[in-house]
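Preliminary data (for renewal application), MTE complex.
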Amino acid sequence: MNHPVTPELKAATWTGVGVPRPHESAELHVLGQATYTDDIPELHGTLHAALGLSSKAHARLASLDLDAVRSAPGVVAVYTVSDIPGTNDCGPIIHDDPILADGIVQYVGQPIFIVVADSHTNARRAAKRGVVNYEELPAILTPQQAKAAKSYVLPPMQLLRGDAQAAFEKAPHKVKGQLYVGGQEQFYLEGQIAYAIPKEGKALLVQCSTQHPSEMQHVVAHALGLHSHHVQVECRRMGGGFGGKESQSALWAASAAIAAARTGKPVKLRADRDDDMMVTGKRHCFYYEYEVGYDAEGRIVAAKVDMTSRAGFSADLSGPVATRAVCHFDNTYYLSDVEIHAACGKTNTQSNTAFRGFGGPQGAIAIEYIIDEIARNLGRDPLDIRRLNFYGKIERNQTPYGQVIVDNVIHELVAELEQTSEYRERRAAVAAYNASSPVLKRGLALTPVKFGIAFNVTHLNQAGALVHVYVDGSVLVNHGGTEMGQGINTKVLQVVAHELGLDLERVRITATDTSKVANTSATAASTGADLNGKAAQDAARQIRERLAEFAVRTLGGEISDVRFYGNEVHVNGQSVPFESLVQKAYLARVQLWSDGYYATPNLHWDPKTMNGHPFSYYAYGAAVSEVVVDTLTGEWKLLRADALYDAGQSLNPAIDIGQVEGAFIQGMGWLTTEQLWWNPAGKLMTHAPSTYKIPAISDCPEDFRVRLFQNRNVEDSIHRSKAVGEPPLLLPFSVFFAIRDAISAVGGHRVNPPLNAPATSEEILRAIAAVEAAA
Ligand code: MTE
Ligand code: HPA
Ligand code: MOS
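Predicted structure:
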C-alpha cells in the first residue's frame, strides 16, 4: 500500500538530530586542512619562546646565571619571575601555582625562566644553557609518602552515611586490602601551544589550544595586570584535550602573553612532547585502603575506603577530582553504611589535573576491585555479586551523597549485554579452555558503569551561544564550548539546523572566542553538548519565533501551525524558502540574530557534608572483555570486547559510537600499558612515546562490538540525549578484571590476585607469582 507523504508526515519526520552525521571537520581532518593553533599563519616578526625547567624535585634556588642563555644564537630576551607585570599565578581555584618559580622549585620540570628567540629551535637550545644552583630539600614523591607525612594540598574530605564501623564489625564476612592505581598522561596528539599577539593599547589576542578560553583570559589578564576586556582568547579546535587543557593550558598561555607583552611582538610558545610531559599534570594516581563487610550471599553491608591521590605540588583541580572520586565510589551499587575518606597528597611532582572521567574512574575502580574479591571469596561469578548489589529502582536507590536515582537502567542494560555478548556460554568456554591450557589462561569479565552528569561545582553548569542568521539565509553559530575532536560542533550545528529546519550545510560554527560569548565554563565534565546545545537551541528558538510571527503577519495562519523543515517555512498552506522569508523579515526590521543561555536546573551541593543533588542525571553502560594471558611472559591480548552504552536519544549515533570506542581504548591503556615512572630523584623518566606506551591500533580487539542502548533521558536534556565524553572510559574496567580473572585461574580461583594498575606484563607476572605462592 502506498501512503501519501503528507506535509504533516514530512514535518514530523524531518530531523537534524538523532542521525549519524560525519564530524563537521572530517573532510578537513583527513585532507590535513583543519587549522590547529600552530597552523595559523604567523604574523611578520613573530618570535618563539621556550621554558627553562628545574632539574630538581624540591630545592631553593640559590642562584640563577642566565648569561649563557642571553648570549645564545637568536635570543631576543629572557624573563624570570621579576619580569611578570601582574600576578605570578596560573592556578584555577587556589592560587598556589606559580607561572615561573619564585625562589623555590617543587618538581623536576617546573618552569624557571622564559627564553624568547627568533626561532623555535634557537629558543629551545638556549633554554638548556641556564646555570642554576640549587639547595636541595627533601622531596615527597608518592601518595603513600604524602599520607604518612600528612602532606596535603587541601584539607582531606569525607562522606559518611550510617555507621560503617559498627556494620563492619557485625558483618559475617570481610575483605580488607590495599590497591594502587597509576596515573595517566593525556597524550593529546597536538601538544600545549599558545600564540600571543599584541593589539592596540594594552590589548592582546591569544590563540590557544585550550578547553577553557575564559580561564585563559583571566589568567593572562592577571599575569599582565590587565582587565579581562583587554584579553581575547580564541580556539578553533584542539588536537585532543582529554582534560589536559582544562587548566594546564594556562601556563603556556600566560608565558606566551608575558613574552608578547614584554617584547611587543607576537610570540608563539609550542611545547615539544618531552617538555609537555615533564611540565604538565596528568590523571591522578590513587592509593586505597579498604575494609568491606558482606553477607553470605555477597551483599555489601559496610564499606570503608580511604583514598589518597598524588596531587602534585599544587592544588590545580585536585579538590573537585577527589570529590568526584568520592561520588563515584558507589558506581552502580547501593551502599547502606559507608565511610569514604579522600585526601589530595602534596607531592614534588607535576600538578595533576583533569583527565577524562575526572576522578570518577579512580573512585569506581576501587569498589569493582572489592566486588571482584567478594565474588572470588564466595566462589561465585562476579556478575552475580555485581547484580545483587545493584541500586534498586524504588528502594535501595539513594546514593551515599543523598541523590535519589530516578533513571536507573543498569538492570536491563546489563541483562541485554549478558545476552548479546553470550557471557554465560563464554564463561563456560573459558573454564574449559583453562582446564586444558597450563600456560595460556583466558579471563572474562563484565563490568557496569554509572556516571553522574554535571560539573560537581554547581555554578559551572551554565552556557551561552550566539546565532546569526544572515540575509542570504545562511547561519553562523558561536557557543562557549570548545572542539577537541569529540564532535561538540557537529552536535550543536545539528541542534541549530534542526530548530530552523535547515540542512546542515546551511549552518557553520566558528572558533570559540571570549569576545563573543563571555564567562564560559571549561568544556568538560562531558557537559559540552548538553549545555551549549541547549544554549544554541535557546538562541535559534528566539529567531524562529520572530520569523514565525513575521510569517503569520505576512502570510496569515496561526503561529502554532508554522513549521520549519526542509529549508522551507510552512504556514497557512504555503511553503516559502527559508532565505526568502529571512530577506523579507530583514526589510521589515526583524532581528535575525540572538543570544541564548542555559543553566542546568535543580542542582545543589554542600561541600562540607558532601551531600546534595550534584548531578542532573546518570549515564549508564557496561562492557564484557575476554583476554588471554601468557602466564610465563605476562603478555596478554584482548580477544573480544562488547560494549553497550546509554547515550539516551543520541544526538548523533556515529559520533557517540566513536566516543565509546575511543574512550574504551584510552581507558584500557590507562589500566594496562601506560605506566608513569619517576626515578628516585623525582624525575619522570617516561616522558615520550618511546618509554610511555599508549595503545596502538594493534592493541584494539579484532572483535569489537560497540552499541548504543535504546533509551531516552528522563531529564529534559537536549533532545533527551545523554552525555558521552567521559563515562565510557570506565568500560575497560572489564579488560583489567578479565586479566585478573585469567591470573586467578592460575590458582584455581581460590586466591585474590594482588593486581595493581596498570597491569603491565611485569605487574601481571608479580601477581601470578603471588597467587602461586599463596595457592
Ligand atoms: N574526544 C576526543 N576526540 N578528544 C578529546 O580531547 N575529551 C574528553 C571527551 N572526549 C576528548 C574526547 C573529555 S575529558 C571530555 S570532558 C569530553 O570529551 C568533553 O566534550 P563534551 O562535553 O562535548 O563531550
Ligand atoms: N569535571 C571537569 N571539570 C570540573 C569538574 C568536573 O566534574 N568540576 C569542576 N571542574
Ligand atoms: Mo574532561 S576530564 O572533564 O576535560
